[in-house]
Write a structure and sequence with these properties.
This protein has one domain. It has helices at residues 2-22, 26-30, 54-64, and strands at residues 33-38, 47-51, 82-88, 98-107, 110-118, 134-140, 145-150. Helix content is 25%, strand content 33%. The protein is of the alpha+beta class and 151 residues long.
Length: 151
């Protein structure tokens, strides 16, 4: 009897831990697709953008690829059905950094975008070159207020 209680308590605590660590709804992660992700772009400062039209997408793509000739072909987005979320770390002094959109959570008129940023450990071997990690994802069309949250 006592073992069953411990097992039930362990199960409840385990489920709560998974929900807290996951942070964002997994169903929404499934509707998210990566449009572009990398360690090098021309965006020098930390930025988070919500893009809902072709003109803003074109401007961002040109800014990201400044100095690259020819500029890579911009991925096609249907802005009637999708919204782009773009996050940038800005310039970092070495490799080992990354940024990722981890999920989206919709509650009433507020959409929260989860972001995970990684930094290299002090003893980690990394490239000694400037990097500027970024991640751009497409989500089903978003309306209302959008906020970004580190997860």
């Amino acid at each position: 009897m006592m073992i069953r209680r411990y097992m039930a308590a362990f199960l409840v605590v385990g489920i709560a831990a998974v929900l807290m660590i996951g942070g964002m709804a997994s169903a929404d992660k499934e509707s998210m697709r990566t449009v572009s992700k990398g360690n090098y772009c021309a965006i020098e400062k930390r930025e988070q953008q919500v893009i809902n039209n072709e003109a803003d997408w074109s401007t961002l793509w040109e800014r990201m690829n400044a100095g690259i000739l020819p500029i890579p072909e911009r991925p096609a987005i249907n802005f009637e059905k999708e919204t782009l979320i773009a996050v940038f770390t800005g310039v970092r002094n070495s490799g080992g950094y990354s940024i990722e959109v981890t999920g989206v959570e919709n509650k009433e008129a507020l959409t929260t975008i989860g972001i995970k940023e990684k930094t290299p450990a002090a003893d980690m071997m990394v490239s000694m070159s400037l990097t500027s990690p970024y991640h751009i994802v497409a989500l089903p069309k978003l309306n209302g207020k959008i906020e970004f949250k580190k997860s």
